[in-house]
Amino acid sequence: MTATALREPPAVAAEPVRQRRRPAATGLLAVVITVPALVIVGLLGVVVYLGFRAHGTPDGALTTSNFTVLFGDAEVWSVVRNTVVYVLVTVGVALFFGTALALLVERSDFGWGRTIATAMVLRILVPGFFTAMGWIFLFHPRIGAVNQWLMEWFHLGHAPVNIVSLVGMGFVEGLALSALVFGMVSASLGALDGSLEEAARASGAGPLRVLFRVTLPLVRPGLLGAGLFAGTIAVSSLDIPLIMGLSNRTYVFSSYLYVATNPSAGTPEYGVPAAFSAVMILLGVAFTLWYQRVLRSGRKYQVVAGKGHRPARIRLGRWRWAAWLFVGGYFLWSTILPVLMVVWISLLPFVQKPSAAAFKVASLDNYRQLDWSFVERGLTTTIKLMVIAPTLAVLMSLAFSFVVVRARRRYRMVYDLVAFLPQAVPTTVFAFGAMIAALYWTRGWYGLYGTLALLVGVTALVQIAFGTRMFNAGLLQIHVELEEAAAMSGASSWTALRRVTLPLLRPVVTYTWLWLALLSLRDLTVPTLIGGQDTLTLSVASWTLFNSGQVGASSALTLLMILFMAPVVVLFLLLTRKNEGKAPV
Amino acid sequence: MTGTPLAVEGLRKGFADRDTVVKAIDDVGFEVKEGEVYTLLGPSGCGKTSTLRAVAGLERPDEGRIVIDGTAVTGDGVFVPPNRRDIGMVFQSYGIWPHMTVFENAAFPLRVARPKVPKKEIAARVESALAAVHLGGFEGRNATQLSGGQQQRLALARALVRRPKLLLLDEPLSNLDAKLRQAMRAELASLQQETGITTLFVTHDQDEALSMSSRIAVMQAGRIVQEGRPRDIYQRPETRFVADFVGTTNFLPGRGADGARITTEVGEFAVKDAPHAAGEDVLLAVRPESVLLHLSEPSGTPNVVRGRVDRVMFVGEAVDCHIRVGDAVWVTRQDPHLAAVSGDEVWLELPADKIAVLA
């Protein structure tokens, strides 16, 4: 600018500038995203506020008694204990299986990398309550087929495995989340400069020692991130705790909140749940701050590296059979058998283990007798949800990420923090806050309670956490010089955004949208808690049937839902095939 | 403890690329003598790094034998994993572990050694290794706080700390900037001389290869095309590829006349030893600095050809004088005080003993 000004003759410089000034992209976007940011903070604020009101209603008296009751309540403490056990088991199982499989694929000569990666994506997309149902049919102490067989064969007095326990719940949730861990750890391993491990080999360390002294310590940030994500998702998710824990009253935080706000008898009491949620918010915010610090210090792990190549693969040699057993066993027990059991049960009038006698009564009756108007309603809501919510979430996340990554002001970190909150604070808390806010503060034509708009809005807000993680990473890869080059060519910041940044970001946008659409489809947490006539999604319908004892019908409906997901999943796989290396999260 | 430090025989390795097999290493064999710096030189993709990695045990060749210090480590149905080979290696990107301190990085080979090395000895040996690469006093530093050159030296200390039989260097200087690279080249050479360690060195940089090696093997498309002392490689290239890849060369096609004379388009030249029969097509190769430039026609001097100055490029310690001779442009390196300017008529003298005759 100065250089041109110096060279330009003064006559030209004196000419009046007619150009209309438009605000820069980051500035305006920062203003726009204030709305969703305020809503996120507001919803959490509402919950905290209710925690200080008698009975947790806005017109209740100001009090701290909810917190006194909370900390003195034996039931609450058992929920805390349960949640801790459940989350620890989940994270342990998810990390073990996810990391082991990632190491096998990325570092050994096992092969089948692409097949396993695809199967893992499919695993994430199978709804949690689906595998939970499958595991119940396999290992429930009373109706579980495997338990019954074991008891018959070994003449046992009682069932050897009880899957509807805390450990069981954690195990099933952990298996479900191992796919996510696999994706994240694979990405970390892939990004690691291979010469780091080869240097250890050339220094005389054997494969195992390299693994524990070099590989694992170096992917520790990745492992930590994967563990934390698995942990927060476990606290948030409602499907497995509901299906596996409700009947025997084993509550963790999410199912506790659901039961407290949807009591089978009497008026709901929101006070203690709100206080409990307030504590969870506090933990969530603390966690977010801590995690951001960890990320920042994680940057010191970035190495001055040349071309990062894959290190030499470890030969499995005569241990290949063990690897096959591990991989085969994992997929068999985590996916294939549970799915087969759900298919089997959907063909039966009542739950029984596979046998010749049971085979005779198998029929398609459950499918024929499904209340199709009920299904149709669920399907319509689901389609609306899975189209609108991801679109909103993608748009908001793009705006958030653009401000966070590209703006040079200090406030950008605040936006990043807010965008991460839906990950750190259990989704159940957001849904709870939204439900109460809609119930008490929206009336008449703008009444939101029980509407699809509320469901879509809350789903989209919660998805911002995932969306911004994806777009932050995506934008960081698009070098700022590309936008600056556009500016030097005379483009405004908006034109640069539209013509350069967005086209480059498009693969990530498509990927994120599809991923969020699939998550909206399988989600049970937000629709169940927001609860209402207009918000009956397929997953809620399936859960309703299961909860009212119509297990066969529920299985049938769940299978239909999977069928309905299939085309989206195929589209997803086709599109991600071209964008290899973009692991989820 | 018998035999040469490293012997490689009939090494082959192919990579499947869609439906064809690319021969990364195609029948490579060489021997490295005690205390020698043996360099594999070639453009990227010539198989030099694959060969080095096969010696390290990081890659399995399809065929061939590798013997380190009398022990067969590859071939005859044997494959010794890299950690059981008596080697030290410096990687192109150094492979310095960011989660360990400088001391921990250098101590790692001793920590994992079998039989166990006593703690006191580890401390002493790491200290002397770090001192040897001028990193004394940096022990407690975080490895990522080191500069590129320091990381490079640390990688060297780590490779040498367990006193291996063989040191493998995979383009160790290519990530450094020009000035630092020259300093490190000298440092590396003197360290090698002090320790006397047998070294296998891989590089694509001819200056590095020429200045640091005892012997050089020039590789092309998976094969060794010429092996010899740096001077031989430079002054007596055997193929056009070698002449072209190692340094700048002027080529002149010609035909063998009688005994020590070659006929070309621009005249007849006497050469020192022409192993080729009369009537055979040959290629003359002359280095830019071997060409003598005269501003007036010298009398009674053989091997002179007339040309016209195309351009004079000042490169600091010399000028590169581009001379048009016939249809070709020759590059000659001259004293920077040269008075010639573009368009001048000049006479080039090609001393008979500086002309290489290629088939």
Automatic annotation (TrEMBL), chain A:
It is found in: Cell inner membrane; Cell membrane. Signal peptide: none annotated. GO terms for cellular component: plasma membrane. It is a multi-pass membrane protein. This is ABC transporter permease subunit. Keywords: Cell inner membrane, Cell membrane, Membrane, Transmembrane, Transmembrane helix, Transport. PROSITE patterns: ABC_TM1 (PS50928). Belongs to the binding-protein-dependent transport system permease family. It comes from Actinomadura rayongensis. SUPFAM superfamilies: MetI-like. The chain crosses the membrane at residues 28-52, 84-105, 117-139, 159-182, 223-244, 270-291, 321-345, 383-405, 417-440, 446-466, 508-531, 551-575. PANTHER family: INNER MEMBRANE ABC TRANSPORTER PERMEASE PROTEIN YDCV. Its main location: membrane. Residues 80-291, 379-575 form the ABC transmembrane type-1 domain. The keyword Translocase does not apply.
From TrEMBL, chain B:
InterPro entries: AAA+_ATPase, ABC_transporter-like_ATP-bd, ABC_transporter-like_CS, ABC_transpr_MalK/UgpC-like, Mo/tungstate-bd_C_term_dom, NA-bd_OB-fold, P-loop_NTPase, Transp-assoc_OB_typ2. Pfam families: ABC_tran, TOBE_2. One of its GO terms (molecular function) is ATP hydrolysis activity. GO terms for cellular component: ATP-binding cassette (ABC) transporter complex, substrate-binding subunit-containing. Residues 6-246 form the ABC transporter domain. Keywords: ATP-binding, Cell membrane, Membrane, Nucleotide-binding, Translocase, Transport. It comes from the Bacteria. This is ATP-binding cassette domain-containing protein.
